[in-house]
Structure formats: C-alpha cells, structure tokens
Specification:
By secondary structure, the protein is of the alpha/beta class. It has helices spanning 7-19, 35-47, 65-70, 75-84, 95-98, 115-119, 123-137, 150-163, 192-209, 218-230, and strands spanning 2-4, 24-29, 50-55, 89-91, 142-146, 168-172, 237-244, 257-265, 268-275. A hairpin with a 2-residue loop joins strand 8 and strand 9. Bound molecules: adenosine monophosphate. Adenosine monophosphate binds at residues 29-30, 36-37, 39-40, 145-146, 148-149, 172, 174-175, 182-185.
C-alpha cells in the first residue's frame, strides 16, 4: 500500500494505471476509519482493479471551529486499517495544496434549506468545494458514497451529473453495529454512558417507525414524529422527520420515506436515516 501526500505523485500513479486500462475506484473520507468506510472500500475492491482512499479533514465543511477541532483523528490506525482492507493508495493531501490555487467556496444548489443544510449553513458548500478539487485531481471511473449521509449522497449525485458526467457514483448502504447504530467517526467522542443512551434512542426510533400503516402520508407521520421527539425529555435535536427518499420533500406516503434525524449527545452531533 502506498501513502501519497502530493497531487503530482498521485497524478503520475493514476496515469500509469489508466494507461494500462485499469479501472480505478475512489473512496473519499475524513479519516478515523471504521467498518462503514470499510464497506465502501470493499465495494470498490470488488468493482475495480485499484482502490484509492483519501483522508482529508476538510475544514471548509465545518461551520463551527470547535467541531473541526474535536473531529476524531487517528492517522496511525487509519494506515493499518487501509492496509488490512487491501487499499492500494491512501491519498493524504495537505490543506495548503488542496486550496492553493483557489480559495473561493462553490455554492451548493441542491436540496437546500432542509435537514443538515438548514442546521449547518455552508456545510454542503464546503463539501462540494472539496469534492470539486478532489474529483479534478483523482480522475477515476467510480466513486463510493454512503447512505449514512443521505442528503450528502443526493447532493453529490446531482453535482456529479452536472460537473463530472464520466464519473459513476456508487451508493453504499449503511454499515451498523450489532446494537443498531451506524458506524460513525463521531461515535468515538461519546462516553460509555452517552453511547448506551444513543443505542437506546436509536432502537426506540426503530420501534417507532414500525408503528405506521404503509399508506400513512408522510405529512401525517411527521406530526407523530414531532410528538415522539419532543416527549423525550432532554433530548436535543436539530431535526427528526420523515421525508420522501427520492425528492427529500415532505410528500407521498411512508412506504417511500426515510426517517432522518440529527441529535446531540453532549457536544457530539449524530445523524442517521432509517428506511421507514
Ligand atoms: P466521512 O469520513 O464521515 O466523511 O465518511 C466518508 C464516507 O463514508 C461517506 O461517503 C459516508 O457516507 C460513508 N460512511 C460513513 N459511515 C458509514 C457507515 N456506517 N456505513 C456506510 N458508509 C458510511
């Protein structure tokens, strides 16, 4: 496994294999790798002859400095992790090189003012900005994104259609712990007690989503969702609602919906979405 830290060397590596006609898969990450990332890597390895994983904590997508500062970082372990998943190349660029030529942020225009875009203003502008850079450097065949960050997946899908039509986006379903919660880098910031509370919360949400008749309108279900979350004393949240999984609008019935939540345990913001 190679660890490449600069754009020039990465481009040379890619060119050598593209010239040989290899198909190359790309898994963008912010490090603190876990089995969720592992699932994306495994899919890429199944589909391609070479797999590249990038590790880049993109400051531009954090709208709070404290959130950026407290984001888990564990480089040594990440290298071993990628090695154990047979990644071919880790690309770990510096912020200076990624943002050397252009400091302006792109503006996301898709699925705006709802869910995470409503509560983390500018977050998806930062995501689109860094992906625009990374996709321009890492010109590959396929890129892998997780359904765990569902709104991000939908936005990136539109962005790729518009700006990188030759790149194929492959969505990957969420990898979960036995206890039901999704693998997430942010789980590392939870105390044992907070982790257990989060597991209990998530499992009560699963039970809640099972109560609905498949024909129930999403709008109607959201009245009950609001009651459910506000009745949980002391549970801070940004959003907790059903939305249509295609349009992300509040339209259609439960059989077309996912339940989206962003909650807090202490300072840690946790997001997930569940097929209803
Ligand atoms: P991150 O490092 O959090 O930016 O995530 C990098 C990629 O891994 C994104 O496409 C995420 O959606 C995906 N991902 C994160 N957690 C999971 C999970 N539990 N299962 C599947 N994919 C995930």
């Amino acid at each position: 496994m190679l660890i490449i830290k600069d754009i020039l060397n990465l481009k040379l590596y890619l060119k050598a294999y593209k010239d040989k006609g290899y198909s190359i898969g790309y898994v963008p990450t912010m490090g603190a790798l876990h089995q969720g990332h592992g699932k994306l890597i495994n899919q890429s390895r199944d589909h391609n002859q070479k797999t590249i994983t990038s590790i880049f904590i993109n400051e531009k997508q954090f709208n709070k400095k404290e959130d950026f500062d407290s984001y888990p970082r564990n480089k040594g372990k990440d290298y071993d992790f990628c090695d154990s998943y047979n990644v071919d190349v880790i690309f770990e660029p510096s912020s200076d090189e990624i943002y050397s030529d252009n400091k302006t942020k792109l503006k996301n225009k898709y699925f705006q003012n709802i869910l995470c875009d409503q509560f983390r203003p500018g977050h998806f502008d930062g995501v689109i900005t860094v992906l625009n850079k990374l996709f321009s450097i890492i010109e590959v065949n396929k890129v892998y994104f997780g359904e765990k960050d569902f709104q991000q997946l939908k936005i990136v899908e539109k962005f790729i259609e518009e700006k990188f039509p030759n790149l194929q986006l492959v969505p990957v379903s969420t990898e979960r712990h036995e206890e039901g919660i999704a693998y997430s880098s942010r789980n590392e910031n939870l105390s044992k007690k907070q982790l257990q509370e989060f597991i209990n919360f998530h499992n009560s949400v699963i039970q809640f989503t099972k109560n609905f008749d498949r024909q129930t309108q999403i709008m109607e279900a959201n009245t009950l969702a609001k009651n459910f979350i506000t009745n949980l004393v002391d549970q801070e949240f940004d959003y907790f609602e059903f939305r249509n999984a295609n349009s992300l609008e509040v339209e259609g019935n439960i059989s077309e919906a996912r339940l989206f939540y962003a909650i807090y345990k202490g300072q840690t913001r946790l997001i997930d979405n569940i097929e209803a």
